[in-house]
Amino acid sequence: MSLPAFIDVPETEQAGEIRSYLQSLGAEIKESSAGEDMYSDLEDIIPATGVLWKVQDDAAVEGILNSILSLLIYQPPEELEHLCKLMSENLSKATSREKANIRLKILTNLFHGVGESSIIAYPIYCGLLKVAAQAGTIENITTDLDLVKKLIDNWQLSREKTNNVLRLLYEALKESKQSQAAGKVMVELLGTYTEDNASAARDDAHRCIVNSLADPNTYLFDHLLTLRPVKFLEGELIHELLTIFVSGSMDDYQAFFNAHQDFVKSVGLSHEENIRKMRILTFLSMAVEQKEIPYATIEQDLKISEDQIEEFVIDVIKTRMARGKIDQLQKKVNISYVTHRTFGKQQWQQLHKQLEEWQQNLSHVRGRLETLALPQIPSDPQ
User: Fold this and answer.
1) Do 103 and 70 touch, CB atoms closer than 8 A?
2) CA 6 to each of CA 49, 61, 104, 197: distance values in angstroms, whole numbers, following the listed order
3) Distance of CA 221 to the CA centre of its chain
4) 3-15 pLDDT tens trace
5) Does the pLDDT at position 357 exceed 80?
6) Strand-by-strand arrangement of the 322-327 sheet
7) What residues does each domain of the chain span?
8) Is domain 199-347 annotated with CATH 3.40.140.10?
9) How far apart are alpha carbons 201 and 189 in whole angstroms?
10) CB-CB neighbours of 308 under 10 Å
11) What pLDDT, on a 0 to 100 scale, did the predictor assign at position 5?
């Protein structure tokens, strides 16, 4: 891939021009000594580029950085790896959103310039994710989990580096408001731990639970309980709270909140949002047990008044976790479909029974159709 250069001059002169420009901006960078090679030049230049973030002219900033890339990209492989890592770290350590779009462009150029299948691309991709998290945007970055896993395989990363990529990907997705994709990545990350090292993922597991509970579009949590790092949290308040969201009721949550208000607030969860979600989850449990739910039961179990029921049921239907109709005359809600909050042995047995019944019904229908399709043989005349 060709990379745009800042000025069309020999490499050594180009490096000298970049040094002078950075010095003019106040960078603490020494003059190039006689006989200094390009690798040494770039080792001096790259850490000094932080002064560029205060330059108002974005085109000038992008031009300087692309010029550095044009010098860097053709260095020998053994030197290129270190320089790419240095460049990536320097571009990703800038605070907040300073020139974030430019930094993303430069890192993207570098990522494709070295070839995404090359191990050298690993630190560059990490830099991309860091800047994406700062900027709150993941446009033009590979974030599909399956594709990222292929990159990890191509790079033949260690378990530690694999986890680093997944953690950075999670943060970038979360800051870009891609909550469902972020949750999928975190589950993948936690799934990489074994019984031996699950305790090391305590913070990740805690963060995963909190962010899942806080996500307004996530209602099913039973899969989290099977993750080893989450199991390691058994006995802690966050695990108890997760269990309530998996299979508990409104009353269970209210009792927990009354006893641990400070904890709920300390982890950044909204009590009002928790109440909203627990009402929906409690309703789902009720709908599994009974296909006709009286208003009185809803009022009692969900702690809402009769005039709030219609709006509440509409909210439930919007989640696509249940379908039903309100019978205002009979003061009840008729359920036609509901999603199970947990899917364990009992649910598998129920599904197996339903499939067997469908198979029997289909066999019966097929037999009737075959009977109707048989040609009618006229009886012999007497």
Assistant:
1) no
2) 14, 10, 18, 49
3) 15
4) 444 455 678 888 8
5) no
6) 292-294, 332-338, 322-327
7) 1-75, 92-192, 199-347
8) no
9) 9
10) 14
11) 45
